[in-house]
Amino acid sequence: MAKYSFKCADTGQNCAFETKASTKEELMPLIANHAKTAHNMTEISPEVMEKVNSVIKKSFF
Distance (Å, rounded) from C-alpha 12 to C-alpha 25? Predict the structure, then answer.
């Protein structure tokens, strides 16, 4: 089974937030909620979304 993970620090932020989910579809709302609450981002620009997608890791368990 694949597992997707995200570390906010991988985007260049000084932030320890990390999260995992079974699918990218499950992962994205977790990331968006973090961006809103921790970084005061009301919208995620295409540039930020591209950066987020580039650092999402996929692993197999």
Answer: 23
